[in-house]
Amino acid sequence: MTDTPQLQRLLAIMARLRDPASGCPWDVAQNFKTIAPYTIEEAYEVAEAAEADDVPALKEELGDLLLQVVFHSRMAEEAGQFAFDDVAHAISDKMVTRHPHVFAETEIADAAAQTVAWEELKAKERAAKGAASALDGVGPGLPALTRAAKLQRRAARVGFDWPDADPVLDKLEEEIAELCDAMSGDNHDRIEDELGDLLFTVVNLARKLEHDPEQALRRACRKFERRFRRVETLLAEDGKPPGSASLDEMEAKWQWAKREGNKGEKP
Questions:
Q1: Which of these, 3, 10, 26, 23, lies nearest to 70 by C-alpha position?
Q2: Dist. CA 200–CA 221, nearest whole Å
């Protein structure tokens, strides 16, 4: 599986970097736990490049993510656990197993039916591994919004779910009221607990509206950044850094940035 020249080259580079005698001291010192945060970071950068339709950046970020797979595989190979070929072999087997409509005789009507079949196969795989709960396998290391959505989807598969978005909106109002009540006191833990319930309900609303909450929040972050940078530009044109402007002045610039979509004339 590693007969592609450039993949062979990458594997050789990583082996050299990890060589205790002649490699890079930083690379040699790493382990699975220390590298994991970089793996997560690179995955997010791939997502950001894809969402921005930045093809050159996507190519670069995919390379960075591939390096993470090679890095983990190399460390495992050194420990006698598995190698890159084993990783590729395992995922290849999994893809064939989960696509019987492509590699076997099973027929799937459409993409929606394939999604159902995919989840059924995954459930069987979890059961074969001894999973006792519908929630088993939802990793605690996932981003909180993503993990909340996955937990909710798992619960929904066994019938624990609202029929549509309307009761979720009612629940959202209930959670806001409970947070307001908590804020009237000075119990920090209770406030955090109620805030978590509110966020969890927002994720449920996103799920019922068929939107990915993580993607929706990233989109909101990009919008906020774009508009705030425009506010900074407008203030600078007036000779004012943000820290010297009043909240009313910044709000006026913010509203302008919203109206112009970051384009147009200075107010």
A1: 10
A2: 19
Per the structure block, which two tokens stand in for 193? Answer: 């607990």
Q: Are 11 and 2 in contact (CB under 8 A)?
A: yes
Helices 111-128 + 84-98 axis angle, to 10: 120
- On whether residue 267 sits in a domain, the answer given is no
pLDDT in tens, 165-206: 999 999 999 999 999 999 999 899 999 999 999 999 999 999
Of 170, 194, 210, the position where a domain reaches its end is 210
Quick one: which of 66, 62, 77, 61 has its CA closest to 9? 66
Q: What is the domain extent for residue 115?
A: 99-131
Burial (CB count <10 Å: 0-12, 13-18, 19+), residue 8: exposed
- Our count of domains for the chain comes to 4
CATH number at residue 9: 1.10.287.1080
Least confident stretch, 28-42, 51-65, 107-121, 143-157:
107-121
The answer to whether 226 and 219 have CB atoms below 8 angstroms apart is no
pTM of the model: 0.65
